[in-house]
């Protein structure tokens, strides 16, 4: 595989501040980042009514971050991720108090057992880059997080993260849906502040792919030396085409094939693990953040990917859509059904 230079990649962003380890926490991480974004006047009024109380209670709970879980003596204090930052919308990067409270690095550190020596022993892969994708939202897509992982170094080079506003739901239903889904993580406010429609997400995502030289609109074809990595087939096989239909869009050309990590896991370790949590448990990888917050799940899937790579797995395409149809061909005989 020819290696290419990526002048636009911002690797320094990720090496300068190591990501603190964090665990599934009984107390969800809080995301406090209010009054930094211009919001439509109508929505603003709505926020005040609906989230005013929660905002106050979050403020009271803002301080005790020192009580949040940490692991490993040498690590810095755990901080919740700034989800405005992951969407290129943090306006408080020069505020030391904010930086002290929130994590602004998207790097995913290898587990305690991995080391730089293992990275040197990685197999040559069929792809130069992996795009770890883990959608949220069963009815319509609510969150679209993608981590760009270098296949040679396993570094997370960049993150594309957007909250997605459903198109075919009433405001009331959206509010209930978001409260139920993201309220428990304390991120319903940032969702309302930043969510955009799926077609806009895809437009921005294509700009991001183009910036990283992974895809061009002109060629309208597959990804360039990169492949999506998902936990299961649902994300790319089912939910993306379903959302495209709801949003009245053509299925983008790059969603034709993907790597289902569960099938790789099954064929490499010869053990069945039906989901992300069971893969992590079997591999003894500590789970981080909030399960079913898409950005955190994507990071956890990236940890499983990193372990598979350091253990010597070859990541190959596991499923491919037939051109012009929704039929999917599964390329591994032995697979999770
Ligand atoms: Zn921030």
From TrEMBL:
This is Exonuclease domain-containing protein. Pfam families: RNase_T. Keywords: Exonuclease, Hydrolase, Nuclease. One of its GO terms (molecular function) is 3'-5'-RNA exonuclease activity. The keyword Transcription regulation does not apply. Residues 129-314 form the Exonuclease domain. Residues 53-74 are annotated as: Disordered. InterPro entries: 3-5_Exoribonuclease, ERI-1_3'hExo-like, Ribonucl_H, RNaseH-like_sf, RNaseH_sf.
